[in-house]
């Protein structure tokens, strides 16, 4: 069963003034976590509100931005995704739409109107070196999870493949075999971006949604409880997980085709702190965490969260300045 290590692709929006042109910011972390809407420091743009919905299957955010200056501000708005390792031999990563360039099914609207962002893709090494030019010069896409990538690599002239191997950009157990599988060694750094004008003295609404990246396959047992101390898994939570284990075992006895074990939890990380650089605090911050199934067990370290429905938990803060990030885990045996 998948242990949905959900790297909540909550990569930040970045607002960079157009003149001079700024480098699009990128946010990375070991677990592919990312953040919410992020502005480069702005003295004029206020985040009037943020309505944030988090689950293991979808992320939705609705922002209201107000330009408090007496002039229109045109910016480059960027949504950088966390870096994705392209080597299948590393930690397993499951892209929501791996056969598409927009592999997280990212959509954005401004004041209700769809925006068609551009997509910038780069290949970077583990130490951050940009190797995009070498890969595209060879005729390969930097997103190695697109259909046909292996076939394109095998079809390269021998000397081109050998050059890529010598540069340690691809690997193969038997590089002389044209039917061998070749593994890329880089990480994909993708950024959606578009130009946006914030009218003087007015508020605009930016909404976006996307699907988080998941990874890993495992089963779960009580010996792993200590691994989730950072999610504040308490005795009540442990009792809930044991209940799920018993339900899984009972279901397997009734149907031998069922898995008698529960998988590892879906882990979601939302980085709030990197986004706290607009003018002042967030006027009205509203958070909803949806555990997906009434039977599931949600665990996290966050005070003030209240259950408002069978699967929903909510928090509201006024004049909110993020001081910590949101991390939670959801246990569900189905």
TrEMBL record:
Residues 1-25 form the signal peptide. Residues 25-326 form the DUF4424 domain. The keyword Signal applies. Transmembrane segments: none annotated. The keyword Signal applies. It holds the Pfam family DUF4424. Keywords: Signal. This is DUF4424 domain-containing protein. It comes from Rhizobium sullae (Rhizobium hedysari). The lineage of its organism: Bacteria, Pseudomonadati, Pseudomonadota, Alphaproteobacteria, Hyphomicrobiales.
């Amino acid at each position: 069963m998948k242990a949905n290590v959900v790297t909540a692709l909550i990569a930040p929006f970045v607002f960079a003034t157009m003149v001079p042109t700024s480098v699009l910011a990128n946010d990375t972390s070991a677990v592919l976590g990312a953040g919410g809407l992020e502005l480069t420091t702005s003295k004029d743009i206020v985040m009037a509100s943020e309505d944030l919905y988090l689950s293991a299957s979808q992320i939705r955010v609705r922002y209201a931005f107000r330009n408090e200056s007496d002039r229109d501000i045109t910016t480059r708005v960027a949504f950088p995704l966390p870096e994705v390792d392209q080597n299948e031999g590393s930690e397993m990563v499951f892209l929501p739409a791996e056969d598409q360039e927009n592999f997280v099914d990212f959509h954005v609207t401004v004041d209700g109107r769809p925006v068609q962002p551009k997509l910038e893709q780069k290949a970077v090494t583990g130490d951050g070196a940009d190797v995009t030019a070498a890969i595209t010069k060879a005729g390969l896409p930097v997103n190695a999870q697109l259909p046909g990538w292996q076939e394109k690599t095998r079809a390269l002239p021998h000397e081109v493949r050998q050059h890529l191997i010598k540069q340690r950009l691809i690997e193969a157990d038997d590089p002389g075999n044209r039917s061998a599988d070749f593994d890329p060694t880089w990480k994909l750094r993708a950024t959606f971006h578009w130009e946006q004008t914030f009218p003087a003295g007015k508020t605009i609404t930016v909404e976006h949604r996307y699907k988080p990246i998941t990874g890993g396959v495992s089963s779960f047992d009580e010996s792993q409880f200590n691994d989730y101390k950072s999610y504040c898994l308490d005795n009540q939570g442990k009792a809930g997980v044991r209940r799920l284990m018993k339900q899984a075992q009972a279901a397997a006895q009734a149907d031998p085709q069922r898995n008698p074990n529960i998988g590892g939890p879906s882990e979601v990380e939302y980085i709030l702190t990197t986004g706290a650089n607009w003018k002042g605090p967030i006027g009205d911050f509203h958070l909803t965490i949806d555990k997906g199934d009434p039977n599931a067990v949600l665990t996290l370290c966050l005070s003030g969260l209240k259950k408002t429905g069978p699967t929903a938990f909510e928090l509201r803060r006024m004049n909110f300045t993020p001081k910590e990030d949101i991390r939670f885990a959801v246990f569900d045996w189905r």
